[in-house]
Request: fold
Amino acid sequence: MTADNPRPTLLLVHGAWHGSWCWDRVRPLLEDDGWATRTVDLPSAGGPDAGLHDDSRAVLAEMERIDGPVVVVAHSYGGAPVSQALASAPGVAHAVYVAAFQLDAGESLLGQYGAPLPEEPHGVQPVPDDPVHLFYGGVPAAEAEEAARRLVPQSTRSFAETLTGAGWHTVPSTYVVCEQDRALPLQNQEAMAARAGAVHRLASHHSPFLSAPGEFAALLAKIALEAAG
Reply:
């Protein structure tokens, strides 16, 4: 990259029940390859009163702190607040949705599953049963168990609130389909991937940043280089 066309910073946004710690295996690989990375902790993970729009504001605030172009990488639920943030974010060159909710305005995570929206969403969604099986297929057993221990309850509001804007209509996007995912069914991923400008597929479970960090880092680098032109 040249001074006139610098490499973008990769902003990594985690999914529900998780934290920025989930990127710890892939970040050093990206940084060793010359990429600057940033993360953000979503307030709805462990915060019973925070909703999707609180998460979106946290993502937007982090985007605004980054000098130069940004490629934002959203995993799972993280796709919803990222889509909302993109509607008003400056300097975002590309969005990457990894087995993520690439939602449109007027949609919610619960709505995507056909679930009724509570009138007054309160409290939290507990960590799912057997998260190792659900989230961490292909991850070494000890590492998967450690990740599961770090999960926290997720606010109900984050799943119930609807988007008021979806920036992927104007910001170029790529969808990464995780073909062996047990958490976000393949048919749901394919439906949302149709909204993206490009689609890649990994023969991975829900968390490729833990199960295949080298392959995943290489794919992110490829997408980001293409985004940078």
Remarks:
- The chain has one domain: 9-228.
